[in-house]
Write a structure and sequence with these properties.
The complex is a heterodimer of chains A (416) and B (226). By secondary structure, chain A is α+β, with helices and mostly antiparallel strands. In chain A, 55% of the residues lie in helices and 18% in strands. In chain A, a hairpin with a 5-residue loop joins strand 6 (172-178) and strand 7. Chain B contains seven helices and ten strands. Chain B is an alpha/beta fold and 226 residues long. Chain B has helices spanning 44-51, 74-84, 100-108, 116-129, 145-157, 175-192, 203-208, and strands spanning 2-13, 16-28, 33-37, 59-64, 67-68, 85-88, 163-167, 195-200, 211-216, 219-225. Classes of the chains: A alpha+beta (416), B alpha/beta (226). At the A-B interface, helix 1, helix 11 and helix 16 of A face helix 2 and helix 3 of B.
Chain lengths: 416, 226
C-alpha cells in the first residue's frame, strides 16, 4: 500500500468536498482555456486582417514617412525614379507589390442623393486596381457595385461608411483633400462599389480611387507615398524582409517596415488586452487555489489522529506532506481533466462558429481588426500553461496546510 | 530495558505552566506487562508519550535499550519509533480508507529490506494471531470496536518492536471485549516477550497487569508487583 494509493482513496472518501473543489479548478481551467483561445484567435485574426486589408507583409516608404505615418503626411514621396528602381527590385524578389498614395480626405454628401447633407473624414487610398487586387483582399470583398478599373474616375467606399451616410452605388459625393504642394483639390466622384470586408477600419472609413486619376488631380507627378508588399511562396517574413531590404538598397534609400512595425500600436493594444486578461485569469486561479487550500486545511484538521498515528509509526513529515500533496494533485487532476475536456469542446465550437460581437464592434473601436464574429483558435501553448498551472497550484497549495500541524510534537497532534 | 531517571515535563497552556511530571524515575524490564494508573491529570499519558518518543522531556533522561532517547531531535526520535516502539491507541486510529491488511502493513512499509511478499506473510500471520483471519480485507467501518482494536494491536506488533505502548486500550470497549483484548495482549506479551506498557484508569487493566505503577499529580506514589 503506498501513500499515493492512500491519497487517491482519501479523495474518494471525501468525494463531495473533492468534487466541489475539482469543479472550482475545472471552471478555472475551462475559462482559462476558453478565454485564452478566444484572445489568441482574435489576435491572430486581427493580425491577418491587418495584413490582408491594410499593410500586406511589409511596407516601403520614403525616408521620413514612417515616423509621421499616424498623420498621413503628404510630403514624403517615393518619386518615379525611386519607383522604377523599386519595381525592378520587386520583380526579382517573388513578391507582389502595390503602389499607393494614402491621404486624409473629407467626403461631402448633399441632399441631391442623400437624405441629409453632411461630411465625413475618410482615409483615401489612391491605388492601381490590378496590383491592389494582387496584394489586398478588399478588391475581392465588393458587396455591391464593382471594383475599380485602371483609369476609373469613380470611388469604392467601405460598407459601414456607406451605411452611415446612406450611400448607394451610383450616388455622387464630393471629395476634398490637399494636393501635393498644399493646394486644396475638390472633385466629384461616383460611388462605383461598396466593400464589405473583415476589417472594421476599412469598412468604417476607407475610400479607394484609381492612382492615375489621383495623380492627375493631386499633381503627384508619378510619386506615391508607399508600396504595400506581400511575399509569395512562404519563407520566414523576417528573412524575406531582410532579403528585400538588401535588394532595395540600390534605390534612393527607401525604408522598409514589417506590418507589425507599421501597425505597432494595434499590435501593442492587442497584446496589452491579452496581458490584462491574463491578470484576470491569474486571479481566477488564485480563487481556485484558495478553494483547494481550504479543502486541504479541512482534511488536515479532520485527520489529526491519522497524522499523529502515522508520525508515531515513524513516518517522516515529508511523507505525510507528500500524502496531502498527492491528494491536492489528484483533485487538481480531476478538475483539470474535466476543465480541459469541456474547454476543448467549447473551443472547438468557438473555432467553428465563434461568437457574434457585431453589435458591439460595429459601434466601437475595440482595437481588434475584427468586424463581427470573433472566432477562437487552438492555442496548445495556452492549454498546456492552464493544465500545468492548475496542477502545480493544486499541489503547491496542498503542501502548506499540513505544515503547521506537522511542526508540533506527535503527542500534541494526538492530543489536539 | 527502559530506564527513566528524574524525568520532568512542563507544559505551557496559555500563560500558565502545568507541571505534568515531577522528577519521575522508573526502571522497566524486558517482557514486563506494566500499567501506569492514576486519575486524569496524574501524568500517565505524558509518561507514556515520553517513553514512546512522541514528546520531549523538560528535564531528566530516558534510556531505551541502552540508548538515551530523551534529548534526541525529532528525526532521530522518528527512527527510534520506527524500530523499537509500537503504539496502541484508545480510539484505534486506523485509516478508514485502508483494509485491515493495509492498515497493519503501514507499519512495515517503513522498515527497509522487507519485500512485498514478506510484508504480506507477516501481516497475514499477525492478523491470524490476533484472531482476524478471514477479515484481512475488511475496512475499519466493517469491523466491530474490538476487532478494530485487534487490528491496532496487530499494527503495533507486526514489526516486532521490543516495546508496545497502549494508551487506554480498553476505554472505548465494553467490559467483555476489553477483557478479551487484555487476554490477547497478555498472550502476545508472553509469546513475543514484548514489553507492554499501558496507561489506564480501568480496574480490569490494572488487574491484568503484572506491575502496577500508581501516579498522582505527576509523581509516582506506589508500585505493585504481582
Amino acid at each position: 500500500m503506498n501513500m499515493a494509493r492512500m491519497a487517491f482513496r482519501n479523495v474518494w472518501r471525501y468525494r463531495r468536498r473533492s468534487l466541489i473543489t475539482a469543479i472550482a479548478i475545472g471552471l478555472g481551467v475551462l475559462f482559462t482555456i476558453m478565454i485564452d483561445a478566444m484572445l489568441f484567435g482574435a489576435e491572430r485574426e486581427s493580425a491577418q486582417n491587418i495584413r490582408d486589408y491594410e499593410t500586406g507583409d511589409v511596407k516601403v516608404f520614403a525616408p521620413g514617412y514612417f515616423a509621421e505615418r499616424q498623420f498621413l503626411p503628404f510630403e514624403f514621396f517615393l518619386e518615379t525614379h525611386d519607383r522604377s528602381l523599386l519595381e525592378e527590385a520587386f520583380s526579382q524578389s517573388s513578391v507582389d507589390a502595390a503602389p499607393r498614395t494614402v491621404a486624409s480626405a473629407e467626403l461631402y454628401f448633399s441632399e441631391d442623393f442623400f437624405k441629409v447633407a453632411g461630411s465625413a473624414t475618410v482615409k483615401l487610398h489612391a491605388i492601381e486596381p490590378v496590383k491592389e487586387a494582387a496584394v489586398f483582399r478588399t478588391p475581392h470583398a465588393i458587396e455591391s457595385g464593382r471594383w475599380l478599373v485602371p483609369g476609373d474616375t469613380g470611388i469604392v467606399v467601405g460598407s459601414w461608411l456607406a451605411e452611415d451616410i446612406g450611400a448607394k452605388v451610383g450616388y455622387t459625393v464630393s471629395v476634398e483633400l490637399k494636393g501635393r504642394g498644399g493646394f486644396y483639390q475638390t472633385f466629384d466622384a461616383e460611388i462605383v462599389g461598396i466593400a464589405l470586408t473583415d476589417n472594421p477600419y476599412v469598412n468604417r472609413s476607407a475610400v479607394y480611387m484609381d492612382l492615375s486619376y489621383a495623380d492627375e488631380l493631386l499633381a503627384l507627378d508619378g510619386a506615391v507615398t508607399e508600396y504595400a508588399v506581400v511575399f509569395r511562396g512562404g519563407g520566414k517574413p523576417a528573412e524575406r524582409k531582410g532579403q528585400l531590404a538588401a535588394g532595395l538598397a540600390r534605390s534612393a534609400a527607401p525604408e522598409i517596415y514589417s506590418w507589425e512595425e507599421v501597425e505597432s500600436d494595434a499590435v501593442l493594444l492587442t497584446k496589452t488586452k491579452s496581458g490584462g486578461s491574463k491578470v484576470y485569469l491569474f486571479f481566477m486561479f488564485i480563487i481556485a487555489a484558495v478553494g483547494i487550500s481550504n479543502t486541504m486545511l479541512m482534511a488536515v484538521m479532520e485527520r489529526k489522529n491519522e497524522i499523529g498515528m502515522l508520525r508515531s509509526l515513524g513516518y517522516a513529515k515529508a511523507s505525510i506532506r507528500w500524502l496531502f500533496l498527492v491528494e491536492g494533485f489528484a483533485i487538481g487532476l480531476i478538475g483539470t481533466a474535466a476543465g480541459t475536456a469541456l474547454g476543448s469542446i467549447v473551443v472547438a465550437f468557438m473555432v467553428q462558429y465563434g461568437l457574434d460581437f457585431s453589435f458591439m464592434l460595429r459601434e466601437m473601436d475595440a482595437g481588434y481588426r475584427i468586424t463581427g464574429v470573433m472566432r477562437s483558435a487552438w492555442h496548445p501553448e495556452g492549454m498546456i500553461t492552464a493544465i500545468v498551472g492548475a496542477l502545480a497550484i493544486s499541489s503547491v497549495v496542498a503542501w502548506f496546510p499540513s505544515g503547521r500541524i506537522l511542526k508540533s510534537e506527535v503527542a500534541d497532534i494526538l492530543r489536539s | 530495558m527502559i530506564s527513566i531517571s528524574a524525568v520532568s515535563k512542563t507544559y505551557t497552556v496559555g500563560t500558565q505552566k502545568v507541571r505534568a511530571l515531577r522528577g519521575v524515575s522508573l526502571d522497566i524490564n524486558s517482557g514486563d506487562f506494566l500499567a501506569l494508573a492514576g486519575p486524569s491529570g496524574s501524568g500517565k499519558t505524558t509518561l507514556l508519550n515520553l517513553i514512546g518518543c512522541i514528546d520531549s522531556v523538560t528535564s531528566g533522561t530516558i534510556t531505551l535499550d541502552g540508548e538515551t532517547v530523551s534529548g534526541l531531535d525529532q528525526m532521530k526520535r522518528n527512527l527510534v519509533r520506527q524500530r523499537k516502539i509500537g503504539f496502541i491507541f484508545q480510539s484505534y486510529n486506523l485509516i478508514p480508507v485502508l483494509t485491515a491488511r493495509e492498515n497493519v502493513a503501514l507499519a512495515l512499509q517503513l522498515v527497509k529490506g522487507i519485500s512485498e511478499k514478506e510484508i504480506n506473510e507477516r501481516v497475514s500471520r499477525i492478523l491470524a494471531e490476533v484472531g482476524l483471519a478471514g477479515m484481512e480485507d475488511r475496512k475499519p467501518s466493517q469491523l466491530s470496536g474490538g476487532q478494530q482494536q485487534r487490528v491496532s494491536i496487530a499494527r503495533a506488533l507486526v514489526k516486532e518492536p521490543p516495546v508496545v505502548l497502549a494508551d487506554e486500550p480498553t476505554a472505548n470497549l465494553d467490559s467483555k471485549t476489553g477483557k478479551e483484548i487484555l487476554t490477547l495482549m497478555r498472550e502476545l506479551n508472553e509469546t513475543h516477550n514484548t514489553t507492554f506498557i499501558f496507561s489506564t484508569h480501568d480496574p480490569m487493566v490494572m488487574e491484568h497487569s503484572r506491575i502496577l505503577v500508581k501516579l498522582h499529580d505527576g509523581e509516582i506514589t506506589g508500585m505493585d508487583r504481582r
